[in-house]
Amino acid sequence: MKQNFSIKYSIIIARIFIGFVFFVNIQAGFDFYFHPQKYLYAYELIGIPGNIAISGFGLLFLLWNIPYAFALWNPSKHWISLIQAVLMQLIGCIGEIALIFRIPENQYLLLRSSMLRFILFDCIGLLLLLIAFYLTKYAKNSLQK
User: Fold this and answer.
1) Which of 10, 66, 75, 109 could share a disulfide with 139, CB 3.0–4.6 Å?
2) Cα 66 → chain centroid
3) Maximum alpha-carbon separation in the chain
4) Does the predicted TM-score (pTM) go above 0.90?
5) Which helix (H) or strand (E) holds 86?
6) Is 124 exposed, middle or buried (0-12, 13-18, 19+ CB in 10 A)?
7) Which CA distances in Å does 41 have to 58, 64, 104, 111, 144?
8) Do 58 and 33 meet the contact criterion of CB atoms below 8 Å apart?
9) How would residue 5 be classed by pLDDT, with cut points 50, 70 and 90?
10) pLDDT tens-place string over residues 93-137
């Protein structure tokens, strides 16, 4: 009985963590897609081309969250989607950290600030997804015993 309780709550906590990352990603995607003008200055873009580029980023945010949705629905059943979400989040963290080193120091401070917010969120998201991964793995292993 105690084991079933811990398995159940492991999955619930995993889903909460996945859901938080998913929600924030989707919210950012919609905001970038529908309100690109809010981000033009941070990325030093202007006019219609800038609006379309930022909206395109928003569309990408929405697209790459498909595995997160399946992992959220049932992380144990959609185990591969959870693994994909973790790997995507890891690539995002590594890529963003690498990108910030391409911005000249003491220049483009607004861009640097924006990138640091992405790095912070994505690294926190990676940590939450890794915890969800291990909680789900624990639950899967416990059920197989």
Assistant:
1) 10
2) 11
3) 61
4) yes
5) helix 79-100
6) middle
7) 16, 25, 17, 8, 53
8) yes
9) low
10) 999 999 999 999 999 999 999 999 999 999 999 999 999 999 999
